[in-house]
Amino acid sequence: MDLTxxxxxxxxxxxxxxxxxxxxxxxxxxxxxxxxxVARSEATDELxxxxxxxxxxxxxxxxxxxxxxxxxxxxxxxxxxxxxAATARGLLQVTNFAFLGAWLASKRCLLVCxxxxxxxxxxxxGLLLEGAAQDPMVIVxxxxxxxxxxxxxxxxSSLAVxxxxxxxxxxxxxxxxxxxxxxxELDHTDIFPDLPSLLQVFRELLDKVQHGGVVVANADDPNxxxxxxxxxxSLLERDVRIRTFGFGTHADHQIVDHTIKPGEQSFGLRxxxxxxxxxxxxxxxxxxxxxxxxxxxxxxxxxxxxxGLETVLARFHGIWRRFQKISDQDGILxxxxxxxxxxxxxxxxxxxxxxxxxxxxxxxxxxxQRKRTRDLFLDFVxxxxxxxxxxxxxxxxxxxxxxxxxxxxxRDLQDAIVRHxxxxxxxxxxxxxxSLDETLAVLKRWKRSGDVxxxxxxxxxxxxxxxxxxx
Length: 471
Prior knowledge:
By secondary structure, the protein is an alpha/beta fold. The chain folds into three domains: 3-99, NAD(P)-binding Rossmann-like Domain (Rossmann fold); 104-314, UDP-N-acetylmuramoyl-L-alanine:D-glutamate ligase (3-Layer(aba) Sandwich); 324-467, Mur ligase, C-terminal domain (Protein-Tyrosine Phosphatase, Chain A, Alpha-Beta Complex). Helix content is 32%, strand content 23%. The protein has helices at residues 17-28, 42-49, 81-89, 96-103, 118-131, 195-207, 222-237, 286-301, 310-314, 342-355, 370-375, 377-383, 410-423, 436-446, and strands at residues 8-12, 32-37, 54-56, 69-72, 92-95, 108-113, 137-139, 152-153, 159-163, 178-181, 214-218, 241-246, 253-261, 264-270, 276-281, 324-329, 332-337, 361-365, 389-393, 429-433, 452-456. It has a ten-stranded mixed beta sheet. Strands 16-17-21-18-19-20 form a six-stranded mixed beta sheet, sandwiched between helices. α5 (118-131) crosses α8, α6 (195-207) packs parallel to α7 and α10 packs parallel to α12. The protein starts with 7 loop residues before the first strand and ends in a 15-residue tail after the last strand.
């Protein structure tokens, strides 16, 4: 079946951030879409407003009789009732990423990959190309405030900027013209048992880069540099250009004169000819400087000059759940953040300390998936060091993934962190909360003028962020 010619599609797990983006793409071109998800959400409500019928729960009867294709999220296994019904009917089934790979085969796909910063870098690359009048399509795993459809931008050019998801090897569904490698470290331990297995999948991705394409790589990340070094000969044989970025002097695009002051940071970016361009950024964190430079390096590899793009970055105030300011009142700033890996936690806290000097940093953190928490437990413990007060909500269990490991709890993290604090003679509040309601109650009890309260995690903890300042 030619997936670009379907007219009637059913989507299982339609409320997922990428799935909902696919649904919007299909509706945009006149395809009739129905869908289902385990629970109602902001995403499902948004799709219903677009005229897409969304059933809550999974039942065989939800699959329309005239459906030509079933698109499913990887969280919906073969025993999902709707997938079972589709199998019985001989209905073609593909994942959302397999569908996108086929749907965008005629586009010049720019795939943004790595452990951290994918969503922000994807959004930035799309905004920079938009600012340069390149009119790209963008599909991002978050919501971009200036995109009318949030997680999707509909462009008419040949360019498609895609957030490349390594989970379940999703990004291997694409034949990219360009790949951005932001950083690489062990994550998704339910899929990748160790770092070598993760790096192997990225090697396979580099093998899929088109002849004459480009790889944009973080020069400061040792795993990225090892990976690119091993693939260099193969890439050069296919005339794939390699462009590096970072703070190191060996980077093709080197960051210089990075300065931070309250509420703003700035940096210079030296190109391969030695010319330095200045940029200002109103969001915190060295990691966000790297995200910006990754995006700038990508657009430069497409022949887009940096001149004139300064205003795009100066106006960039972030995206949904990436150090997103929820409220700033009574001297209290409330921030929602998606961080769920120890490195992201530590980097975000360090960024907050630098951007808001002298203010108390209060972190409410919800670990994401028990297996990840157990496997990265020892890395999590010191990652919270820069929080002045820490609240640990119970671990978020991810529907459709393996959650049978009940041997770890956020209480275990609390105990380990209290011992760690004693070892370093640190005294601070470290508490545990079993639910969203309990988490909200503690934060309301703790809050005081001057606080920066960060609500962090990839689960549902973000839902309380806008309630913290309620009386």
